[in-house]
Amino acid sequence: MNKLRYLVSAAALTLLASAVSAPGQEDDLRQRFGLQPVPPVPYPENNTYNPARVELGRLLFFDPILSGEKDTACGTCHLPTFGLADGLPLAVGVGGQGLGPG
Fold first, then answer.
1. DSSP per-residue codes, 22-58
2. What is the overall mean pLDDT for the chain?
3. What is the rounded distance in angstroms from the CA atom of residue 72 to the CA atom of residue 18?
4. Cβ–Cβ < 8 Å for 75, 61
5. Those residues with Cβ within 8 angstroms of residue 36's Cβ, 6 or more apart along the chain or in another chain
6. 85 has which bridge partners?
7. SS3 5
């Protein structure tokens, strides 16, 4: 039992140590792979907040009439409760057709 406890503790410490990044490691990785921070999204000055446009966007997002077969809305797969994802490890796509195996 003590041996098992020792092994589990050693494994946990190893995982913890590997998860902690060293100072400057992020900068080193950015430089090595040429990574840059994502720039801010440019918003035109004339694109101010408008409740009517927000409501229009919401209605269009959940309206199936915009799809090719007029039966699937964007909100069918892009669920707001899942951060606009579908909550699946691999997306199925419309009618089971989409990216992925099969």
1. PTTHHHHHHHHHT--PPPPPP--TT----HHHHHHHH
2. 80
3. 44
4. yes
5. 30
6. 79
7. helix
Q: Which two tokens stand for residue 64?
A: 């199936």
What's the predicted TM-score (pTM) here?
A: 0.50
Q: What are the structure tokens assigned to 8, written together?
A: 């589990």
- Asked if 76 and 64 touch (Cβ cutoff 8 Å), the reply is yes
The token pair at 19 is 């998860």
Whether the CA torsion 87, 88, 91, 94 is positive or negative: it is negative
Q: What percent of the chain has pLDDT over 70?
A: 82
**Between 60 and 25, where is the model more confident?**
60
Burial class (CB in 10 A: 0-12, 13-18, 19+), 9: exposed
C-beta atoms surrounding 76 within 10 Å: 13
How far from 15 is each of 7, 24, 93, CA to CA, in Å?
12, 20, 36
